[in-house]
Write a structure and sequence with these properties.
Elements lengths: L2 H28 L2 E3 L5 E3 L12 E3 L10 E2 L6 E7 L4 H19 L4 E7 L4 H10 L7 H10 L1 H5 L4 H11 L4 H8 L2 H16 L8 E6 L2 E6 L4 H24 L1
Parallel strand pairs: 5-6
Antiparallel strand pairs: 1-2, 3-8, 4-6, 5-7, 7-8
């Protein structure tokens, strides 16, 4: 084979590889991922505080994650909180609004809250993976630490190193933490929940909430104030639940 032919063949192969990488990059970007300098696929889609567009109906037959919950399983209302540990708006909700909701409605048995991790980048993905490793009864306490210390680890030169320190303080050994960060099965589950939230529920930013009551589900996109959520619970949903319950008992 002539040298010129070899050059042509090599050029064709290189061109095909470039086209493939461009196509793969476009696909991953659409899904919220990129390939970093080391060749690793990482999450990069930024979450944002979506303008509140009001409730949107969600099919009642969709199976939603149930792993991390607070409150009675048979509570008449369930709030699914799709949240990222790296999202400042999520931290604000979790630290300032959620405690009041828990005190007023979860502890009384009226509401159950389910936390669904929705990572927005590699650091928040690492945080979600480590949170899955703590004892189930410590999950929300660890989540609170991650939100309280969000600026410390998210702006750190090595976020993973800081996150592992928090994990060890929660009773996880350094070896366990390292294994958790590379648990493909757990990572796949988190990413599936994230992808389903985007494609099935229409979630585009964090935090987002799915409120489930009496066989109905509604998506509330974007940040919500305590007053808004309380108005929704006390002025709208509770009335519907109580009215339906009265009709069933009559």
């Amino acid at each position: 084979m002539k040298f010129e032919d070899i050059i042509k063949n090599v050029s064709s192969i290189v061109a095909l590889i470039v086209v493939y990488l461009i196509a793969a990059g476009m696909y991953l970007s659409a899904k919220g991922f990129v390939i970093d300098g080391s060749g690793e696929i990482v999450l990069v889609r930024s979450a944002y505080a979506q303008d509140n567009v009001g409730p949107r109906d969600i099919p009642a037959d969709l199976v939603l994650p149930e792993e991390h919950s607070l409150g009675k399983v048979n509570a008449p209302i369930t709030i699914y909180e799709y949240s990222s540990f790296g999202c400042s708006h999520c931290a604000d909700f979790h630290l300032t609004t959620l405690p009041s909701i828990i005190r007023k409605y979860v502890e009384s048995g009226e509401v159950r809250v389910v936390f669904v991790p929705f990572p927005i980048d590699k650091a928040s993905m690492d945080a979600a993976l480590l949170a899955e490793c703590v004892a189930p009864e410590q999950y929300f306490a660890f989540a609170e630490v991650l939100f309280k210390k969000q600026r410390d680890w998210s702006f750190a030169h090595n976020p993973q190193k800081v996150l592992k320190q928090y994990a060890t303080l929660s009773g996880i050994s350094a070896e366990q933490a390292e294994k958790c960060l590379h648990n493909d099965e757990t990572a796949q589950k988190i990413l599936e929940n994230r992808q389903n939230g985007m494609t099935q529920l229409g979630i585009q930013g964090t935090p987002s909430f799915v409120v489930s009551f009496d066989g109905k589900r509604e998506l509330i996109a974007g940040t919500v104030s305590e007053d808004y959520l309380e108005d929704l619970l006390t002025g709208g949903i509770f009335d519907d639940v109580e009215e339906d319950a009265t009709q069933k008992n009559s």
